[in-house]
Amino acid sequence: MRAVIMDAPGQITVGERQDPRIIEPTDAVVRLTATCICGSDLWPYRGVEPADHTPMGHEYVGIVEEVGAEVTTVRPGDFVVGSFVISCGRCEICRSGYPSRCVHAVFVAGNIGTQSEKARIPFADGTLVATPGQPDADLIPSLLAASDVLGTGWFAADAAGAGPGKTVAVVGDGAVGLMGVLAAQQLGAERIIAMSRHADRQALAREYGATDIVTERGDEGAARIKELTNGLGAHSVIEAVGTEESFLQAIRSTRPGGHIGFVGVAHEGVTLPMDGVFFAQVHLHGGPAPVRRYLPELIQLIWDRKINPGTVFDLTLPLDQASEGYLAMHERRATKVMLTL
After folding, report:
1. Are 239 and 168 in contact (CB under 8 A)?
2. pLDDT value of position 266
3. Distance of alpha carbon 169 from alpha carbon 117, whole angstroms
């Protein structure tokens, strides 16, 4: 089968890999309909994380071709959406609502790789969710978004306590930040402040429910949030970047007693001044999003056409042109790239 391989940082090829097959009785083999490039895929592309003939991709939708003997919730022919983390759905951690930290957790990226024609998904019952039927073609981008970027933005908004009467500030205008805006709107936030310097992303943030746009960054951005909230700061802040500057901006934009949902992946060198964190007196909750927890709800919202997160994809390419998709995102010519099969 064809699959995207990162041979080394900045080097993408579409080569041949062996077709997946059922190994464990809890496995499913999925023939992918669409996949995409994530902002986190740019870390190895830019050399921040290692890459050595690494199978890429962790966001995916498709049709089940085969299941193991113990799989009960999906069957061949089902159209499914999968989480970017494999989870059993049965352990104590999964049952507590954190399947991304399942005792059997495996990250799809680098281990399975779903920028490919097919994928073997372990623990299919705990990882995949079937849609109510075969989706119309125009729903596929939105269902694909649910696999990671929408679920991650939703978790960030939920962790930040977004809801009625709340002012939510969103640090980061990439795909996850934009999905955080959409989630905050769906959760009933009264005011949503998107922090963005890019006109196209500002327009999309407005489409998803942003009421205000702040172009300043860092301390200036935090000061502007305070200005807009009577000097108090936002009740809820979504941090969707993962740098030291963005995290400090989020903390300084949050009122005492407020909540920060952080989903930006931090890397080596990111440190926080703990005296500032201590006196900020804010709640911090985040990490790899438990997307599987939210998938049934998100799929239904998409199926009922109540949300349209698929508009976050502003470039669509065939799988064979994946290298151009990576370059477009690296150069910020695209917010998020969908790859079709």
Report:
1. no
2. 87
3. 38
